[in-house]
Amino acid sequence: xxxxxxxxxxxxxxxxxxxxxxxxxxxxxxxxxxxxxxxxxxxxxxxxxxxxxxxxxxxxxxxxxxxxxxxxxxxxxxxxxxxxxxxxxxxxxxxxxxxxxxxxxxxxxxxxxxxxxxxxxxxxxxxxxxxxxxxxxxxxxxxxxxxxxxxxxxxxxxxxxxxxxxxxxxxxxxxxxxxxxxxxxxxxxxxxxxxxxxxxxxxxxxxxxxxxxxxxxxxxxxxxxxxxxxxxxxxxxxxxxxxxxxxxxxxxxxxxxxxxxxxxxxxxxxxxxxxxxxxxxxxxxxxxxxxxxxxxxxxxxxxxxxxxxxxxxxxxxxxxxxxxxxxxxxxxxxxxxxxxxxxxxxxxxxxxxxxxxxxxxxxxxxxxxxxxxxxxxxxxxxxxxxxxxxxxxxxxxxxxxxxxxxxxxxxxxxxxxxxxxxxxxxxxxxxxxxxxxxxxxxxxxxxxxxxxx
Length: 453
Ligand code: NIG
Ligand code: FE
What we know:
Layout: E1 3-12, E2 31-32, E3 36-40, E4 43-48, H1 50-56, E5 82-92, E6 94-96, H2 108-115, H3 120-125, H4 130-138, H5 142-158, E7 161-167, H6 174-190, E8 194-202, H7 213-230, E9 236-241, H8 248-260, E10 264-269, H9 277-284, E11 288-291, H10 297-304, E12 309-312, H11 314-319, H12 328-334, E13 337-340, H13 354-365, H14 369-375, H15 378-383, E14 401-404, E15 421-426, E16 429-430
Parallel strand pairs: 1-5, 6-7, 7-8, 8-9, 9-10, 10-11, 11-12, 12-13
Antiparallel strand pairs: 1-2, 1-3, 3-4, 5-14, 14-15, 15-16
Helix pairs in contact: 5-6, 6-7, 7-8, 9-10, 10-12
Bound molecules: N-(iminomethyl)-L-glutamic acid (NIG) and fe (iii) ion.
């Protein structure tokens, strides 16, 4: 069925061609006024004037049909053929290129301990940190994790993200890592969004391997990676390359093995301490180097000279109470491909709100709004291996789009934490109104929010 979104303040189409954008400016945003978007069979049919769109859907007089869709029934129907956006902004659906969305319980004690001044080590010693999420994750069944993750990612989609990279990494044993990846596959079947699965078996050394870390690296390389690849459960392999977690040589071993079984690679690199993770990512031709809170000047240059996307996660450093951010300006000015993501996880970034991250990127990391928008669309798509088709609105491309409660693209990184997304579609299917709670497995309707500018 053909549908048209009309009466928009503007349509932000993104760059005319796919692929990474270096040195982004407002000119790369492809902002068009006086047009709306027509979709058909999950694809963008045309971007044209409202009159042309009405003709295209075979309904010259759109009337007030669109107004009635403001409160769709639950589950949402595809809606009427003409949707009146009432002066709202239309953009491509956002791309969240880094999440750890498959987890069990939130780590509320870690946050309270941090507020008391306890550091990472003290929190881990007190039974918190990644390994506490691992113990919790292992105790839960696959169906429960599917329910939790579906609810969380439905909320994330309703906030504006239509492509979401999701990592395993709280299993750290073959059986539980496979469980995490199967959860991602099942959630991808349940939701209209595109999920990009990443194997992160090397997220931490599990407690039972503390005194024999070499054996854990061998387990990842020799047992986990071959099965993950054979079963087609992941597109990427990631590793937490950080002093005190996995060293450079261990990271190289794991990522070389990942490439050998046909996976693309990513690194959590130089998150808290600089150890050459960014340089390694560039040298290995990794799709992305993520975090980069402590990247060296040499690491910045190495990334700028490479195709590796620098994925910045300003929400994480903010939530952890750090005063320093990754050097976004240095990376942008050196010509690196910069993306932004939420890092959605129970320890260091319990949010899937990508517009909030854009606001933090502008206010804390001194990115310009246009740079932040490109970072959360086309450049995020490149980091997620979807650079050819996602993060842009183009006739013939996927009908992944968000309609926002504001009029100007700069407002997406301005109204921080406000309910900005009005309606969100992935492959032409509605993402708003799908979700239940985020910390329990409820279900219910998401009320649609009014315009705020
Ligand atoms: O990206 N740095 C490693 N992993 C996560 C934190 C995961 C956790 O604390 O559970 C991150 O910040
Ligand atoms: Fe992460």
